[in-house]
UniProtKB/TrEMBL annotation:
<dbReference type="Pfam" id="PF00005">
    <property type="entry name" value="ABC_tran"/>
</dbReference>
<dbReference type="InterPro" id="IPR003593">
    <property type="entry name" value="AAA+_ATPase"/>
</dbReference>
<dbReference type="InterPro" id="IPR050153">
    <property type="entry name" value="Metal_Ion_Import_ABC"/>
</dbReference>
<keyword id="KW-0472">Membrane</keyword>
<keyword id="KW-0864">Zinc transport</keyword>
<dbReference type="GO" id="GO:0005524">
    <property type="term" value="F:ATP binding"/>
</dbReference>
<keyword id="KW-1278">Translocase</keyword>
<dbReference type="InterPro" id="IPR027417">
    <property type="entry name" value="P-loop_NTPase"/>
</dbReference>
<keyword id="KW-0406">Ion transport</keyword>
<protein>
    <submittedName>
        <fullName>Zinc ABC transporter ATP-binding protein ZnuC</fullName>
    </submittedName>
</protein>
<dbReference type="InterPro" id="IPR003439">
    <property type="entry name" value="ABC_transporter-like_ATP-bd"/>
</dbReference>
<keyword id="KW-1003">Cell membrane</keyword>
<keyword id="KW-0067">ATP-binding</keyword>
<feature type="domain" description="ABC transporter">
    <location>
        <begin position="3"/>
        <end position="222"/>
    </location>
</feature>
<keyword id="KW-0813">Transport</keyword>
<keyword id="KW-0547">Nucleotide-binding</keyword>
<keyword id="KW-0862">Zinc</keyword>
Amino acid sequence: MLLSMDDVNVRIGGQTILSNISLTLEADRITTVIGPNGAGKTTLCKVALGILQPTSGRVQKAPGLRISYVPQRFHIDSSMPLTVRDFLSVSLPFARKRRLLGIAEALELTEVEHCIDKNLHQLSGGETQRVLLARAITQQADLIVLDEPAQGVDVNGQELLYKLISRIRDIRHCGILLISHDLHLVMADTDNVLCLNGHICCAGHPESISNDPAFVSLFGRRAADTLAIYHHHHDHHHHADGTVAEGDHCSNS
Ligand SMILES: Nc1ncnc2c1ncn2[C@@H]1O[C@H](COP(=O)(O)OP(=O)(O)OP(=O)(O)O)[C@@H](O)[C@H]1O
């Protein structure tokens, strides 16, 4: 277990924002939180990051847990010259003690090695997010928290970003808490989905979620079908002529 929440409640100014949240984040697993605007997704991130204390309930973290945060957007004043190399070096002295992956390797892994000498404010939205992912790698994060990291990134960039996130999970064996609206893009690699609307409406593997009445009432039949169809396309392999490979199966048709 990397981090767990047990019956967490958050009330701010008399408003209940999160109620009865229980979850466990594990190494090697991507947990995706989905939910409508105002559902409490960012608040949940803040509780996980330890920057917001719950009104009640318990948050437990593995001893020495290192969390890295990738925000929705990242603004840096254009008058402040800071290269990608310098930005990633900031976390080096401490991280080096933990046999960190070098800056160049991390940038290569997130496919932005060509940006190493660029100024942060010269980067595109997609490049910025990939530099932030590289930072999480150099920091040797045990848990990476990403709050809608693909906002403002074009579709190809989004797909690449989500592929990189699952590749980092596979290589670094870290846990990932991902907030996303891009259901069809994130679901293939998600191990666990939490549907949030102030409380957890339903949770589980994407395939089981798509059949859950709570999911359907929150996101609509169309989203549920998208999820189901998506998994149909990914639970078997085709031969070149389109026939299904032996031993594979179609769970949805
Ligand atoms: N510091 C605060 N003070 C008062 N209300 C707050 C505070 N932070 C969040 N809220 C309220 O809590 C609710 C949940 O906010 P939160 O930002 O966690 O939602 P979200 O699911 O991330 O939304 P979105 O998808 O729109 O980004 C909203 O109604 C918001 O107005």
